[in-house]
What we know:
Transmembrane segments: 92-113, 133-156, 206-228, 234-253, 317-339, 867-893, 937-958, 964-984
Structural class: mainly alpha
Domain ABC transporter: 488-711
Helix content: 55-70%
Pfam families: ABC_membrane, ABC_tran
Region (Disordered): 455-483
GO molecular function: ABC-type transporter activity; ATP binding; ATP hydrolysis activity
Amino acid sequence: MESSKKKGRPVHPRSRANPLSALTFAWTLPMFWSGLRKELEEHELYEPLEEHSSGPLGDKFARLWEEEVARAGGKRTPSLLRVILKAYAGRCMLYGMVLLFMECGIRLAQPVFLGKLVDYYSPEKERIDSTEAYYYAGAVVLCSAINVFVVHPYMMAILHMGMKFRVACCSLIYRKSLRLSKTALGETTVGQVVNLLSNDVNRFDVAVIFVHYLWIGPLATIIITYLMWLEISWAAVVGVAFMLAFIPLQAYLGKRTSVLRLKTALRTDERVRLMNEILSGIQVIKMYTWEKPFADLVAKARKHEIKQIRATSYIRGVLTSFIMFTTRICLFCSILAYVLVNNVISARQVFVVTSFYNILRQTMTVFFPQGIAQVAEAAISIKRLQSFMLYEDTSKPVPGLADIQTSTKFKEGLESPVEREDLEEPAKLDLEKKTMEPRKSETLETLAEHKIAEGKGNGTTATLAPLESGEEDDQELSTRIEEDSRGVRLKHATAKWIVAHPENTLTDLSLSIKPGKLIAVIGPVGAGKSSLLHVLLRELPLQSGSVHIGGTVSYASQEPWLFAGSVRQNILFGQAMDRPRYNMVVRRCALDRDFSLFPQGDKTIVGERGVSLSGGQRARISLARAVYKRADIYLLDDPLSAVDAHVGRHLFESCVVGYLRNTTRVLVTHQLQFLRDVDQIIILKNGTIAAAGDFETLSASGLDFASLLARDEHAEEKPTSEQTPAADTEDSIISQGSFRKRQMSIHSVSSVDNLTATAPPEGGREEAEIRSAGAVSGKVYGAYLRASGHPLVVALMLFVAALAQLLGSGSDWWTSNWVNLEESTPLQATQMLDRNSTNPLELANHLEESLIDNVQYEGGLTRYDCIYIYTGMVVALVAISLLRSFMFFSMAMRASTRLHNKMFASITRAPMRFFHLNPSGRILNRFSKDMGAVDEVLPSALLDVLQIGLSLIGIVVVVAVVNYWLLVPTVAIGFVFYGLRIFYLASSRSIKRLEGLVVRCFHT
């Protein structure tokens, strides 16, 4: 918050990279070398590219959103999806064309070239010559090169697009949260906002990767089916049809995923909201030893959440299992259909068809269902973001609210109220001789006759303008506003917090405040004093009437608040340091004595709840923050209630009356002893102006106002040790012509002579969040596995996963063995069906003949034996793969539940010092973003690691069985890739950890 010079970051090298460097990502090498040598620090990271900056992206989306809201015009719901499409639809389709070229062009051409290359090794007479073989080999290499140099830049571009979506939406959410009205704040929660920023926006990063496969997948399927038809005729349709039969199931599972995603988000919102409330009241919870009841509440909320996550995880497990068996089943169906009509299938055909099925499997059973699921989840996130953006905010036009006109007085060189004292006459403490006339020529004596104190009055409003008589009309009001644009005026203002509520919060208020005046607003609890200030702040929308604010506004809220940072940062609140003004504000707010007692002076770190300071210190720091801001109008909501009479007198005389004397001040107070020194007094009751005027007029009105003041002044004369703080006075209402002061919830009182603060033992410095270094320890993985279940359960799951891979590799080996048997066995049928025949009658006749004819292979096996063995292996593979996924995700959900409960137990058992040094946002981020990663991201990543690792082992074993000499280059390549892994992870870990720290600071 405090302006200071920071180490400049280096310029992003991508902005200066030449085309070759951009294509090969050579510009990233310096960062990788630096990360390999040491842990990266935040200042070593590059400045973001201009196109990735939050400001421009947020401005663009904000402008498009405003245009969308304007176009909707209340006739339809504004669509955030339209905003996203309008911003990036063109670029997204351009990237889609690139992906189409790769998926339906280069990738499909490579198996064709490979098939031609395999023909060179065919024993048949029509094999190709060596020259053609070299051409096809070159074409295969060229396809791989194009794939490398196009797909990776494409992935970088598409990921950047998803990042732009995320950053822009985060900016929109942040801006919206700052503008939410009080009504909207009651409809949303901190947990919902945190969940939107930490979880929902992350869906865009993944959704953009798969969105194009929703239309490229079906197109690629048509092309692949045609190419396989050229190889194995109609048998290709059998396998493709079987693969396409999975799509309805995948679509259904994708739909269920979106439904479960919405339910999960709602459950997560509820849990995070509960956690936020617990963190806010942790001191009370510990004081009353309520840890166990609140732990039960959190455990119940977590149970409902994990139920939805578990269902989603099982669906993901089913979709992941498709990778294991879909290709093998489709290949089995095609080979079976082909050989049952007495065709001899060759190794070349199996090789080409398998390659096509692998492409089709990746496109239709991995990317296509992922596209359905991720786009569905992104749609849910967009819907949630859109609902948040449609909450009422203070930027929306309020009926009758005039545009705030900012005074240019301060912009003309008048630096502070103190510096202007030579240019303007000090405001007199005594009121001018002009008196005020209530509406409809009612006098104050008439108001007294209404018996307001007995509750029989109608709450007649009164204006503070020195009117001669009667009610001014619109023309007169317009003239007066024009004459004094820096004033504050309300005319017949009626407002309520809840629109559907029958009763108004404020009713028919009319008042006029001249510039430079000090106005005191008093009244019983619930009279509408704070609501009046919120109307002036545009936080409380008007139902009718008008309000005019002429000038800039500074506001001190009724409840003092601090954020995690130094005292100086809390006062400056992001403004530039003006040392003379800062020192003056500190003295006027009676903080200089406090600073001398703090370990680090005004650099002492205070918690976000200000728990290391007394109530009086918190109140004076909040007041200093409002006073330090240069403004024309100061709205002060009872800033004197948390201090004793001596300090209150100093704040009132030195700060409110003295330092701010040339500004307009609206002071809500219960300190009746100060009313003699204000220019105007407004008495509120039940949301209406019960009376208004200067002190002498109200004292003479018959409301017994003078006796109240006398009693309060008498209390003030007592010794400081016997004083009753304003914070501890009892509530009362206006009764029998008297007032009773409001009882405040703040009972902390400070004195000028005895100011103390408890600061962190470390001398007031904020405890930085610990950042891990180096590789992830094996203890972390061990802790996760222990949380997932008994070691025997973990071992059983690993055995099932290994068995699934064994069945997969075994089915691959059996396919090659079966093809070899087919090639080495002469045809048993007297007539062979031409493989290109498409006559349905001919196909049916020969299929019937071939089903009767069971071919005998060398070694004693028959064709039916091979079919039965392959069928058994594939069926077992399907069952074991599904069992593996269910077991794995069941363990993962158990680990998530236990880790969450353990973390919550550790938090509740932590001493209060932990909460003083760690902002609640940092803790809350552990329970939202980090816990979300443990629930959803980590299980999927671990299953991928397990599946890919076992597949790699299976491939190496199969290759070694065929030709063990191939292990030599395999081991060499393995060492190379292991080195690349170390080279990459050293930097990526550091950057990911730094990202986590920065994001947590943002959430804090």
